[in-house]
Amino acid sequence: MSDQQQSTTQAFPSSDQQQSSTQAFVKKTAAQRKLYESGNELAAYAAKQINYHIMGYYPITPSTQIAENLDLSGARGEHNIRLIAAEGEHSAAGICYGASAGGGRVFNATSANGLLYALEQFPVQSGTRMPMVMNVACRTVSGPLCIKGDHSDIMYLLNTGWIILFADDPQMVYDFNLIALKLAEKVNLPVVVAFDGFFTSHQKQKCMVFSEDETVQHFIGKKLSCDNPEISAFAGNDSTGENRFYSVLDLNHPVSVGSYMNEPDIINNKYQLFLAMEETRKKLPMLFDEFASLSGRMHTFCRGYLCEDADIILFLLGSSFHPATVAADTLRKEGIRAGVVTLNVLRPFPSDELRHLCMHAKTIVAADRQDSYGAGGGNMSLELRAALQDITDSTHPIRVLTRIYGLGGKDFFVEDAVALFREGLSPDARAFDYYGITPGTTENCPQPQYYAPLTKDRQSPGVTTCTFDPATGKMLVKGGLIKDATAMPKRIAPGIGTCPGCGIPVNLNLLLKGIEGNVVFLFQTGCGMVTTTAYPKTAFRIPYIHNLFQNGAATLSGLVEVFEERQKRGEYPKGEITFIMASGDGGMDIGMGSALGTALRGHHLLLFEYDNGGYMNTGYQLSYSTPMGAKSSTSHLGKTQYGKTFFHKDMPQIMAAAHLPYVATVAESNPHDFIKKAAKAAAYAREFGTAYVKALSACPLNWNDRPDTERKVIAAAVDCCYFPLYEIERGITSLSYDPKKSHKKIPVTEWFSMMGRTKHLATEEYKSVADQIQAEVDRRYERLAACAEHPLL
């Protein structure tokens, strides 16, 4: 190996030698092949080759493709990873922790608010020294809701004790996923592989991967858990240098993981975590060298471009590094000595390596794709300033300017990098500023009145009237005819951006047709929310608020309570309001805990679920309400899978178990029944407490059927008893429609055959699965019918 070639393995490689993470190393000892894939696809490919034991996950854009691709390759029999779809990111992190405590190799992927929802679990993982790997496709943290890429999520992880690698192109995503697991198991810490959402996560590039899975598995090595009968010692470093791991499954040597600690034990624990992070500083360069000899690609803590003689350096993370290098070339042609620096490792923070790359610059423009509000810079900018304080050459002070850029996925072009360089060249440049903002105008006012306000009188045309009968203990409803319902003004304006045939506006309009008087509306995150409130316009002609999937019901309960308390104190006019939360697109999975807590407390509000059987706004992943056997992007068909593997969740019965005053199911195929139940539910919510109504809501795009046939598809779901129509009023069940008595009952396969997602279940190949589903549908319906016959049920 020549001197120049050897220099790429030194602690501080020259910037020219780091121009590309795919830079050729001299000796390639393993066969590789070329792929044209995105960062998400390559993260999944690496995980497939590693063949993890467990992936606990929850879908969230833009990281969801990782789980989708792993499910697809699993259906083909290409790996044995057990994918567990949690009901939320917090539980997904718990699944991963439990699996790693059991000696397994564990994988996860998340983004943005999903990462924050699970945040309290991450110090648990590192504090108990459980290795695993998690990919973070970096995305804006809301609110307001935005699904585009910036770095506001990953910075929350800096103080959790996780090692953080940051990939700036898809090739590095693949490489770092392989290095990450080996590193995690060498130092007993969890590792994050982070990359830019929608930029690195979705943009495809030509990349090299190892041809054989065995090459990857040999590089990482065998995990030596103490519950393995071949191993008799406890966890620790053995004579071969391999780590062994404690396991809760080690029955011969029982251990307690996560014990309660006081001082001085807790400070000792954290000191050991610190020592492990310092050990990472030593181990990681060796792993980089080892990987380079295997792959021909050398990685380092920092990456520089034209830094040796640079007067001005642009410091930034992720995919922005690449247009910045082109900008540096542009300025070099003008005689301006410009360079670029990025980090490939955020934790442990590479202060020494960073100082080495930046020490000759006169000015550094630190561009942060995230702001630590009130601190005068984003996190990386602040840590850069701290690192530069240790430069002892007082005759050469380095001026550091901070610019916040690219928030919400705002594109970063070569021209933007040039502009940042030129700002840094100005002697009068401000130390801190935002780059790329636009001045506000009155046109972007969040509450322009496109329609006249809907007064209570306008919202009370007499479509329905409800009175409570103490003698029977039931709410009596009059009216609700379709011809009369046309008098109700639309609370949601027409022309919203849903797909053709979408059931969301149909169901919301039918619900609101039956509810008289003032209404305040909350939407959980989902297709309905996104398509009705694209800033700066809104489709809602009534007051509206949004909160995330997991917390909508609690948010609305707070609004209800402040309404009642302000009325009690004389601060708000007397009068009634019907408070409604709409949830769908899987929102009653991740939001079920919040909804049940609200139901148990009994706040005066109506929970309405439009159930379209999947996480639709993230691209149709399986929900707990997805039919068993149905295809989705995380329940593929293949030689080892037949679609979703467990039965659909019965949310109305779960709500009924909370002893709500009113629970009902409705369908657009029975509109008169729908409108009357909406009126009854609203009356119960105002008078007695939380009410719950569920509608089966069509999604032609993901159900793979025709938009113009959806009413027939919904009717078939009712007629096969998959979605029975009934109500539970003050604990007493009554059927609203009995397909058996009406001689309209059909086999569940007849409904399945109407949708592309389930039509395979109507074939002979999947008859055994269809028979299981039919038996369960019949069992649930017969139980429901028996309740309807019983005077106390």
Automatic annotation (TrEMBL):
This enzyme's EC code(s): 1.2.7.1
Domain Thiamine pyrophosphate enzyme TPP-binding: 577-682
Molecular-function GO terms, alphabetical: 4 iron, 4 sulfur cluster binding; pyruvate synthase activity; thiamine pyrophosphate binding
Residues in coiled coil: none
Oxidoreductase is among the record's keywords: yes
SUPFAM superfamilies: Thiamin diphosphate-binding fold (THDP-binding), TK C-terminal domain-like
Span of domain Pyruvate flavodoxin/ferredoxin oxidoreductase pyrimidine binding: 46-281
InterPro entries: PFOR_II (IPR033412), Pyruvate:ferred/Flavod_OxRd (IPR050722), Pyrv_Fd/Flavodoxin_OxRdtase_N (IPR002880), THDP-binding (IPR029061), TPP_enzyme_TPP-bd (IPR011766), Transketo_C/PFOR_II (IPR009014)
CDD domains: TPP_PYR_PFOR_IOR-alpha_like
UniProt keyword annotations, A-Z: 4Fe-4S, Electron transport, Iron, Iron-sulfur, Metal-binding, Oxidoreductase, Pyruvate, Transport
Domain Pyruvate:ferredoxin oxidoreductase core: 310-416
Gene3D superfamilies attached to this UniProt entry: 3.40.50.920, 3.40.50.970
Region annotation Disordered: where it falls in the sequence: 1-24
Gene Ontology process terms (BP): response to oxidative stress
Pfam family, one: TPP_enzyme_C
Family per record: Belongs to the pyruvate:ferredoxin/flavodoxin oxidoreductase family.
Record-given protein name: Pyruvate flavodoxin/ferredoxin oxidoreductase, thiamine diP-binding domain protein
Gene name tied to this protein: porB
